[in-house]
Amino acid sequence: MDLRLAGRWVLVTGAGKGIGRSIVKALHAAGARVVAVSRTQADLDSLVRECPGVETVCVDLADWEATEQALGGVGPVDLLVNNAAVAFLQPFLEVTKEAYDMSFNVNLRAVIQVSQIVARGLIARGAPGVIVNVSSQASQRGLTNHSVYCSTKGALDTLTKVMAVELGPHKIRVNAVNPTVVMTPMGQAAWSDPQKAKAMLDRIPLGRFAEVENVVDTILFLLSDRSSMTTGSTVPVDGGFLAT
Questions:
Q1: Domains within the chain, CATH numbers bracketed
Q2: β 79-82/55-58 pair status
Q3: What is the pLDDT of residues 14-27, one digit of tens each?
Q4: Which of 25, 153, 161, 196 is an active site residue?
Q5: Which stretch of 45-59, 123-137, 173-187, 223-237 has the lowest confidence by average pLDDT?
Q6: What is the SS3 assignment for 163?
Q7: Which reaction does it catalyse (predicted)?
Q8: Which stretch of 29-43, 130-144, 188-202, 217-231 has the lowest confidence by average pLDDT?
């Protein structure tokens, strides 16, 4: 299926590793013009070697002023993938202010800020656009030691709906994807313990974790005009986890 993304400007946050890096590579292969954002310059350098022509911005999205300066002049952006996120796993009674602040700054506040920058540019140009927020199944279920992470993703799902309501009249669609555990290198390491993995897999009707391309394919569909009537949705990529 031709998703007709060639020539579109796409900004991807959290582009240095994992899902974000795979999104950039898929968009580059589809002919899109990609701006990759990461806080790690070495990851961006290696990404450009793999995908010549990708533009890069190195900035810590937890820093509001630095983000405004780094991304304020980027554009014209047509499509945005808010993928950057952090996860600090702590029991509820041991949650720290530092973990709370960093989690909400990156997982929620940065989504608001980057989306504002892109949406204002689209509205000023009178151009339609699409924003995809990378959420999680953790937005809708309580997971041990994930109180702050689950909270940020629950807030992100609700933010997605409000953005869709307010930006829809400007022809800007906003959706979220909600993956289960994804087999990135980090995911493989975190779920390598068979006993830990079994406890989660037993809750997934399809009996397996997601591969990176399962998430990437869903995001590309939501970015494309093939999903032109879809906005305000949270789309599970979870093998049925949220259906149980």
A1: 9-182+211-239 (3.40.50.720)
A2: unpaired
A3: 999 999 999 999 99
A4: 153
A5: 173-187
A6: helix
A7: xylitol + NADP(+) = L-xylulose + NADPH + H(+)
A8: 188-202
Q: Which of 149, 161, 171, 196 does the annotation list as catalytic? A: 149
Active site residue 196: no
Is residue 81 within 8 A of residue 12, CB to CB? The reply is: yes
Which residue bears the tokens 């049925």? Answer: 240
Residue 191 has a pLDDT of: 84
Q: What DSSP assignment string belongs to 21-63?
A: HHHHHHHHHTT-EEEEEES-HHHHHHHHHHSTT-EEEE--TT-
Residue in 163, 179, 86 with CA at minimum distance from that of residue 131: 163
Q: Are 111 and 153 in contact (CB under 8 A)?
A: no
The torsion defined by the Cα of 183, 143, 155 and 222, in degrees rounded to 10, comes to 30
153 belongs to the catalytic site: yes
Decide if 154 contacts 146 (C-beta within 8 A). Answer: no
- Say how many CA atoms lie within 13 Å of 144 toward its Cβ: 3
